[in-house]
Amino acid sequence: MGKWLTAKHAAEQVRAEVAKEAAHWRAEGIVPKVAVLLVEGDPASAYYAETKRKIAGKLGIEFECRTMPPDAREEQLLDIVKAWSRDASVHGIMLELPLPGHISASDVAAAIDPLKDVDGVTPANKLAVMTGEPGLYPATPQSCIRLLQAYGYTLEGKNVTLVGRGQTVGLPLFHMLQREQATVTVCHSRTIDLKRHVERADIVIAAVGHAGLITADMLRPASVVVDAGINEREDGSITGDVSPEAFEAAEAVSPVPGGVGTLTTALLFENAMKAIRLQTQAAKKETIL
Ligand code: NAP
């Protein structure tokens, strides 16, 4: 019989710290502000942007969402992101992905000032994740690790099977898990016999986008499972990559919703506070020079 690794408590703790730091910056005369670029056409993206607006309001963080039509040109998006990157009143910039197919998400991401890149999508921050240099790391991979830590699960020496090697979650998480001293097996769409790799892991992290991919028969009573997948059902509700029966078969499973995603949103704002610290330090350095 498993237990749920819910993120409510951990997310509340992160949000409380963020609210405290946001109040500190306001007292210093800096009004924290996050800006989100949304291209219409993906209902899930619009929902996520709205969720961020609500949370920002509760944390004392200003929020701007610029909504563009589905046929917006790449140059228009680049102009917006470049303007925010130059604007000292904007401290964090996020892109709601996916962007329409005629726009290169990586080109738009590359135009974000790395010091304002709160979701770690710029080349500089991607490199930082790989090398372990300081930087703004993507929120969802951080969330997977922090959720485990919140329940006392350590990673050092553990066999972790990571299912998915996508740019947003799996790939950065692979580097971060190794730095936590885990032994990491990465599975993907060409992996032969997924069950064999999942079943021998102490910790399984699913980041695919395929509902029910991780089934109960792949797990052992000692398996700990983090589900980062988000899949939309026909009725509009969301579900993860782990099948509902897996809960009974494993020691612990993170729920969807209420798990990785909940903590991810809080960590985006934690990154926004870190971004202000980095920008303030950079501004001080410039003054000295
Ligand atoms: P992605 O870029 O589409 O990558 C998906 C990965 O899954 C790829 O590496 C793919 O393999 C692998 N895959 C596909 N089918 C597979 C199969 N049958 N068996 C094993 N691996 C398979 O996705 P992403 O952007 O990294 O996102 C992954 C999931 O996380 C999605 O569900 C997304 O919605 C979710 N997500 C959650 C949050 C959150 O806050 N909770 C945030 C962002 C994303 P190949 O490399 O071989 O193609």
TrEMBL record:
Keywords: Amino-acid biosynthesis, Histidine biosynthesis, Hydrolase, Methionine biosynthesis, Multifunctional enzyme, NADP, One-carbon metabolism, Oxidoreductase, Purine biosynthesis. Its EC number is 1.5.1.5, 3.5.4.9. NADP(+) binds at G164, R165, G166, I230. One of its GO terms (molecular function) is methenyltetrahydrofolate cyclohydrolase activity. CDD domains: NAD_bind_m-THF_DH_Cyclohyd (cd01080). InterPro entries: Aminoacid_DH-like_N_sf, NAD(P)-bd_dom_sf, THF_DH/CycHdrlase, THF_DH/CycHdrlase_cat_dom, THF_DH/CycHdrlase_NAD-bd_dom. Residues 5-119 form the Tetrahydrofolate dehydrogenase/cyclohydrolase catalytic domain. It catalyses: (6R)-5,10-methylene-5,6,7,8-tetrahydrofolate + NADP(+) = (6R)-5,10-methenyltetrahydrofolate + NADPH; (6R)-5,10-methenyltetrahydrofolate + H2O = (6R)-10-formyltetrahydrofolate + H(+). It comes from the Bacteria. GO terms for cellular component: cytosol. GO terms for biological process: L-histidine biosynthetic process; methionine biosynthetic process; purine nucleotide biosynthetic process; tetrahydrofolate interconversion. It holds the Pfam family THF_DHG_CYH. Residues 138-278 form the Tetrahydrofolate dehydrogenase/cyclohydrolase NAD(P)-binding domain. Pathway: One-carbon metabolism; tetrahydrofolate interconversion. The keyword Hydrolase applies. PANTHER family: C-1-TETRAHYDROFOLATE SYNTHASE, CYTOPLASMIC, C-1-TETRAHYDROFOLATE SYNTHASE, CYTOPLASMIC-RELATED. Belongs to the tetrahydrofolate dehydrogenase/cyclohydrolase family. Homodimer. Catalyzes the oxidation of 5,10-methylenetetrahydrofolate to 5,10-methenyltetrahydrofolate and then the hydrolysis of 5,10-methenyltetrahydrofolate to 10-formyltetrahydrofolate. HAMAP family: THF_DHG_CYH. This is Bifunctional protein FolD. It comes from Paenibacillus hemerocallicola.
